Amino acid sequence: MIFWCAVLVLTFALPAPSQVRRYSVTGHLSLGSNRPGNLDSSLVVEARPADGQSQAVRAVVNAEGDFQFSDLRAGAYVLTASAKGYRSLKVNFDIVGTGQIRGNLRLVLEPETSPAGTLASSVVGTVSQNELRAPGSAVRSVERAERLLAAGELGTAMEAVEDSLRLYPEYARADLVKGRILERQQKFTEANRCYRKAIENDSHCYPAYFALAERYRVEGNQAALQEISVEWKKAQSLDAAPYYYSAISLFEAGDFESAVQEAQFARKFPHDHIPHLPLLLANCYLKLHDPAAAAVQIEEFLAAAPNDPLAEQARRTLRSVKEILNQQR
């Protein structure tokens, strides 16, 4: 009997939404090297849309430090975290149309009494030195650019981000925003250069890795995708996303066993921001002629994301896989 595999060929497609979707976003917060424990009222984690026109949404944080925002639309956000006796933290993240998160939400607040530089360079989620060196005028210009971009005013957003770069030419955040604007204008080669420049100026500009990896995935540039994944893993070794994109590049290159290894490694870390990880594993197992393992992954995906845009296709594939399993019995 000829073995047949039903592959989820649209696993990584970006479906056009028919309505405004809402997403749940999770993250983790530590106070120095400790979990928050019994939280008091001074601990605040909030997300505000980068357009500055909407109110901030406060996250629910538990004693382990896990936090969650519910009912967020796709778009750019500014997250702030603060606690009594600790230095406040501000980071940027994006929710893209598939529910993926561009940015890192594993945060560490430093004690106010800790010597400058002893922790900031070694923990995930702290404000980078590149951001700290930015003049206030450059920060205000890039914040204005982010608001204009969120409002869809691409021309004036570009003017604002260019003002920021004139004031601070090495400003990674400004290059990131410029890349986003260029991507919206479908100037993809120029956008890629901006994302690359942002990473070169600030190796902790995690949203730039995410944006550049996604561009390489869409372009089908597997060599570049693998290269940026390796670089990303060095900068953000405790996040699932770089291993996920590495697995994608290996899958597309036909190295399915190595893709499984990378994807399984990604599963060791919180991966709510990459909900299609089980589908990637299912594709790998189908290519490796292991429909039973593929079925487990598809069922896991459907249990976690029953309303995902790819859920119906996953159900159809699961039915086909189960037919194969029944025939093999």
Q: Brief overview, please?
A:
Helices cover 47% and strands 15% of the residues. It has 329 residues and is an alpha+beta fold. The strands form two sheets. It has a five-stranded antiparallel beta sheet.
Could you characterize what this model shows?
It is a single chain. The protein is an alpha+beta fold and 329 residues long. It has 12 helices and 9 strands. The protein has helices spanning 129-132, 136-150, 154-167, 172-184, 188-201, 206-219, 222-235, 241-252, 256-266, 277-287, 291-304, 311-328; strands at 22-31, 44-49, 57-58, 60-61, 66-73, 75-82, 89-95, 101-102, 106-109. The chain has a 5-stranded antiparallel sheet. Strand 4 (60-61) and strand 5 form a beta hairpin. The longest helix has 18 residues, at 311-328. It starts with 21 loop residues before the first strand and ends with a helix.
Note the main sheet. Answer: 5 strands, antiparallel
Would you list the SSEs in sequence order as H and E? EEEEEEEEEHHHHHHHHHHHH
How much beta, percentage-wise? 5-15%
Shape descriptor reads globular
Task: Please name the defining characteristics of this protein.
four-stranded mixed sheet, 329 residues, five-stranded antiparallel sheet, disordered N terminus, alpha+beta
